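Contributing new records

If you add data, match the layout below exactly. Sequence lines come first and carry their own label; structure lines follow with theirs. Keep one chain per record. Anything else will be rejected by the validation script.
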Amino acid sequence: MKFYLRMIIAAILSMSLSSCIVPEKIETRIRYFGEKAPSQITCIWHNISSTAENDKDLKKDFDDFIEDLEDSSTTTELSVGSETKIIVQSWHASVEYGKLNLKMIAVPAGDKLEDLSANGERMIVLEKEEGNESIETNGKLLETEENYIIVWPERLEEIYWIVGGPKETSEEKNSELQELARQNHPKLIKMFEAYQEKKRRR
């Protein structure tokens, strides 16, 4: 096959979140509608926060996040590698249960999403990243030294996997970033709620 689905997610993530904006976890769902309809790709960045060290940098992170969100509000085409493209249909940020989430919905630019499929099963390969040891999925998870391999029956209408957000290799650095994200989280939500209220009044 031309690509692994992990390439899509890596490309979307690098385009959608600024360097200091981090999610607690990233959820990816792919829904299949049969041979005659395109698949639907949904990505959710859960519990977004910032690792900014002061309020000035936090405000800049938030402004960059909103700018990216508004610039991406119309349908866009995202290239993955040299051949594959997906059409991003919508971006939507919201506060749910005290957490700021970002949701993206996309479809393949071609007739269907090409994945690794053989003998009645679908398979994806996810590169193993430092700190991302846990994966939740509705498929069968296999682990090698360098990769996670997830396998689903091809008959499933929807497949999903959820991984932790990016982390550093140093435990000390991870603890520092987690504490910054925890402290900044309520401030970021207040900024977002003020932004939403301002939009409603326009």
